[in-house]
Amino acid sequence: xxxxxxxxxxxxxxxxxxxxxxxxxxxxxxxxxxxxxxxxxxxxxxxxxxxxxxxxxxxxxxxxxxxxxxxxxxxxxxxxxxxxxxxxxxxxxxxxxxxxxxxxxxxxxxxxxxxxxxxxxxxxxxxxxxxxxxxxxxxxxxxxxxxxxxxxxxxxxxxxxxxxxxxxxxxxxxx
Length: 175
Prior knowledge:
The protein is 25% helix and 27% strand. The chain has one domain: PH-domain like (Roll), CATH 2.30.29. It has helices at residues 18-31, 76-88, 128-144; strands at residues 6-12, 53-59, 65-69, 94-99, 106-111, 117-120, 146-147, 151-155, 162-166. By secondary structure, it is an alpha+beta fold.
């Protein structure tokens, strides 16, 4: 298992911001043949009313991206809950290999036990074998990664500013 892997979250004020749109385009290249589960999207975010979105990334101990969410979630809490739910069934993941947009490029994504895309590569690989090896390593790291507990980064559209937000803490029970 990869020591020091972590899952971090970023949220965006609008699904129409450049970063989530780029995220969606990359996912669409990878997952274009897969059906989209209801209520979860990895594309079609052109409508400004789409509102805020949150994503997660799987990072190695050196902050190299190992994988990323295939889904844009509506809130940080939705994204975090999805990670915990997925980790319970990580042994059921099915890795799919795909050819990239250019000759000699390869990528991967993994489906959860229900056949829904859950995690994707974050870049294209030069060889099919390297892509599959990275996918297997990423799934292993996902299972043991530390999940960010204290909050997430909210990124503004110009990406020059970010605000770290704390996760809401439940109010103490009153006697």
